Write the structure tokens for this entry.
Amino acid sequence: MTGFTSARSEFLKAFRPSQLMPGLTAGLVNGIIILMVTISFGALIFANIDPRFVSLGIGLALFNALLVGLIAAFFSLFPGAVALGQDSPVAILALIASAIASASGLSPQTKFYTVVAILAISTALVGLTFLLLGMFKLGSLVRYVPYPVIGGFLAGTGLLLVKGSIGLMSGLDLTGANLPALFSNGALLRWLPGLLFGVIMFVTMRRFSHFLILPGMLVGGVALFFLILSLAGVSIADAQSRGLLIGSGADNIQWQWITLDALRSADWAAVLGRSGSVGAVIVVSVVSFLLNATGLEVAAQEDLDLNHELRLLGVANLLCGAVSGIPGYHTLSLTALARRMGATTWLGSFVSAGIVGVALLWGGKILQFVPTAALGGLLMFLGLGFLIEWLYDAYRRLPKPEYAVILAIVVVIGAVGYLEGVAVGLALMIILFIVNYSRTNVVKETYTGQTYLSYVERPRLYQQLIQSKGHWLYILKLQGYMFFGSADSLISRIRDRLALGEASPKFIILDFQLVSGIDSSALVSIARMKQITDKAGIALAFTRLSPHLNTMISREVCSDSQDAGCRIFETLDFAIEWAENEIIETFNSVGLLAKPKTIIRQIEELFPDKATRASFQSHLEEKSFAAGETLIQQGQHFEGITFIESGEVSVWIDLDGGHSQRIRKMTGGTVVGEISLYLRQDATASVRADTPTHVYFLSASSLADMALHNPMIAATFHQFMAQILAERANDLPQRTLLISS
């Protein structure tokens, strides 16, 4: 019921005063244009075969326009959509027909039915392709067409409309050889009034937007034309002979159903021999429709359901194939013209199709009374609209490189053709994208070891060393998609860093967490980067690689498992820990670094008096843990402090899905568990031994007993713990930076 109500509302909308006149006017104008264009298409395809078959060919083309026009009028979700057989596939079909017409040994009848068979097959395959694209929802692929390419396509459409307008009015093709004839007195009188009429309409409609202005100007222009004819004493016949009226070239149109028996007369070997050209018709039709549809969205500032339109046109072209028609779909120029005239309902499209139907019945005699200047002026008006919008207005709102792409497309479309212009535009946009993307910094952020610490808690001596030699570690967080351009900029950044002399790094970490992908050329650049770092004696590490990138880097860059200068780590924390360990080992290996203080040594410094120290140690419980053994379990009640005498432990938090994450690592001389003790809460993380570990444990009860019986010792211990917590707070900004990134 809802669907019926909506359809009824759309039907009645066409008869509102604001829509009725624009719909009728736009339908009448577009119908005449469709009639002329379709007649020219039919003549173009069949003219070289035999004059006797031209009227039949025109009849097939007109019936095709009637069929696809009615289907679009009633079933398209884009109100006012105008559809007809299109010039892009017709151009290819005309070449096929010309080749068949020139073949020797075939009768004119055989040639005619061979061309008809190719038309039927081509159009049916176009329909099937449209239908499949719509069913599999692939219409959105056109969304990836760059905006300047669409703009160039629309501007090229405007250029061809202007050329077609002058050609229609003058009766001459706009070629260099015809330019002198174009400005002769006889030709100038035929096209100059229409040019002025189109310019006047464009300027007026650019300043005013009432829906009655354009129809009023058209009616007034036609009336003025016949008034001038009358005052000049020129008869209708004389006006036709001078080319001032459309003429009587279509008064013998006829249509007949092409039966399967008739198609047996076709040369099917010739049909199969043109399969490659038929494939080109399919590709051209799909690309042209999607570009037309996108152009309509831009021009009308509305979104089309492309998948619905593809399914609709798929059915329409399958039916057109059954009657040996030509591929048809939405036309950008006439739909835009209807929109500019205020026609946004099915009525205008229905009237356009109806005029084609009348021409099939009456032989197209209505065209004898249409002024050529009026029809040419309308085409000029529409063409100027596209040209001004995309060659004048766009100059101020688009970046100059993108505007240059539009100009290039227009030039190529005007000199060669639509598809060639679009292809050139796409190629230029790809080049422009590569250039612009190369300028985008592939490095999101950079850090050194002075500002970016791992979550390994070490004795203070080691922490101070890492801080002082933090410039040895250079961390680069990468982003985006890496290709040859961005990879080369990364190499340049590293070369600049290496040129700092004593401040140059000894360890470089590349973080790939934000890298979406990498191409083969960028991989070669990274391998070259590895050669540069090897030559400079710098160790290179990669972290947070995707599984695919991990495989590529392992195979192409870090292929030697014995190479300590090329490492891959699962997390950035692990990579920074590795670099910090290497810094410490560099000084340890030459004896320049004193051994860190163990817990026992720190207790000795804390309590110089042996009796006091013995009293404190009496509260400690000595324990040992094997590698992998748990010291503290997350969520369990735990009250006590663990002093790590030797070995290494890691702190892990449990995550959803059975995963866990390391948030801290401690080595000998550090403390764990103090938070749970002082806050009196359950353990918020688990602590596991990474290596065989020896510890001293101070329970909460022992600490309470110490405070009761030895308050001075307890106070000294609390002061010791306050210093440890203050040092951790001092390092917290760097560690928070790591975990937040």
In short: The first strand starts at residue 83 and ends at 85. The domain at 443-588 is CATH 3.30.750.24 (Transcription Regulator spoIIAA).
